[in-house]
Amino acid sequence: MQDCIFCKISKGEIPCDKIYEDEISLAFLDINPVNLGHALVIPKEHFQNIYDLPENIAAHLIKIAKKIGTALKKIGSDGTNITTNNGEAAGQIIFHSHIHVIPRFINDNLSHWPTKKYKEGEVKKIIEKITQAL
Ligand code: AMP
Ligand code: ZN
Known about the structure:
By secondary structure, this protein is an alpha+beta fold. The protein has one domain: HIT family, subunit A (2-Layer Sandwich), CATH 3.30.428.10. It is 28% helix and 19% strand. It contains 3 helices and 5 strands. The protein has helices spanning 5-10, 55-74, 122-133; strands at residues 18-21, 25-29, 39-43, 79-83, 99-104. A 5-stranded antiparallel sheet has the order 1-2-3-5-4, covered by helices on one side. Strand 1 and strand 2 form a beta hairpin. It is globular and about 55 Å long. Adenosine monophosphate (AMP) is lined by residues 5, 16, 30-32, 40, 85, 91-94.
C-alpha cells in the first residue's frame, strides 16, 4: 500500500523504534505511548485490520504480542492490555492491522470503558444474531 505509514516502516523507508522482527512480523514502540514500553505488533504485509488478516498471520501476531507482554511483565509491568482497534468506529487510525501491547501498572489511573446493562430479552436476541453470523 503506497501511502500506508506502517508499510513504509515495514519496508524500512521510515524509521521506527524496533523491538522485535521476524519474517512475518515487526514490533516497535508506539510513538504516543499510553505507558512507556507501549508496543505495536504488525504484519509486514499490508492487511487493513482483523477482518482481512489471514488466520495463520493473526495467530503469529498474537504469539509475538504474548512474547512482548511477557517481556514487559519481566521488566516490571503489573499487567498488560493486548488489544486491536478494527474500523473507524473502534478508534482505528492506522489502517494497517496491528496489535497494541500496553504495559499497565497498579494505580496508573487509566480509566475503564463505560459499561451498559442488558434489558429484558436483549441477551437472547444478541446471542441469536451473533451465533447465526459465526
Ligand atoms: P489505532 O489505529 O487507533 O490502533 O492506533 C494507531 C497507533 O499507531 C497509535 O497509538 C499511534 O500513536 C501509533 N503510531 C502512528 N504513527 C506511528 C509511527 N510512525 N510510529 C509508531 N507508532 C505510530
Ligand atoms: Zn500497510
